């Protein structure tokens, strides 16, 4: 496996190192911020679990999901309130946070709070958004579009590096397979890693059925763990999961979220696979 490492600054203490020979990174939290109470419940429990299991953890939640299926779908609290919640969690728990930006105008404000700026899959080719994020000097986490081949992510990486971006992570989250369905090509993991970036597998969005519920997306939660296991065996640096206390009541992507109470046992099995490969 190619030697790849990047450092993610944390609020205090030593940075998180992601890459070759490093502990697994988990990026996890609710799809969209619903309330500070729910966000903090997930963050506190996941921080405790990851500390106990010896893996790195970054809390994630979107302040605004601008790409929801319908106009009536819940998007989140918005930029200002959402960043306030993320800043509160970051400061009180000394926990790094990540969220996605959908427009270049959001990047400056987001960079004042976030430790990692995420580029959504649908926007991974948007040059102005990519370059604005890279110029902040923050770690940029780019989700591979459902319509983009893994080798074409080189163009995305080149855009980021072309304006000075050096801390880049790439995320596999499934590719369009006909209508309302995704499939994961495990070849994409080593192909994207060959671009010199740590690779993260989004185990929950990869089981999404885009628009599959008519006015919203569906999902096949039962396949989260099998795909996460397969990706771990193929070689990844990090795992991305939508995590909610009660996915049935989640306001966004509940059908492809994992229940908070189920995460620890799944991670234990993932770690066994990763340990066997070491």
UniProtKB/TrEMBL annotation:
This protein's UniProt keywords: Cytoplasm, Lipopolysaccharide biosynthesis, Transferase
InterPro entries referenced in this protein's UniProt entry, alphabetically: DAHP1/KDSA (IPR006218), KDO8P_synthase (IPR006269)
GO cellular component: cytoplasm
Primary location group: cytoplasm
Known catalytic reactions: D-arabinose 5-phosphate + phosphoenolpyruvate + H2O = 3-deoxy-alpha-D-manno-2-octulosonate-8-phosphate + phosphate
GO MF annotations in UniProt: 3-deoxy-8-phosphooctulonate synthase activity
Signal peptide range in chain numbering: none
Enzyme class: transferase
Residue ranges occupied by any DAHP synthetase I/KDSA domain in the UniProt entry: 8-273
Known EC number: 2.5.1.55
Localization annotation: Cytoplasm
GO biological process, one term: keto-3-deoxy-D-manno-octulosonic acid biosynthetic process
Pathway(s) of this molecule: Carbohydrate biosynthesis; 3-deoxy-D-manno-octulosonate biosynthesis; 3-deoxy-D-manno-octulosonate from D-ribulose 5-phosphate: step 2/3; Bacterial outer membrane biogenesis; lipopolysaccharide biosynthesis
Superkingdom in the source lineage: Bacteria
HAMAP family, per the entry: KDO8P_synth
Family: Belongs to the KdsA family.
Name of the protein described by the UniProt record: 2-dehydro-3-deoxyphosphooctonate aldolase
Organism of provenance: Desulfomarina profundi
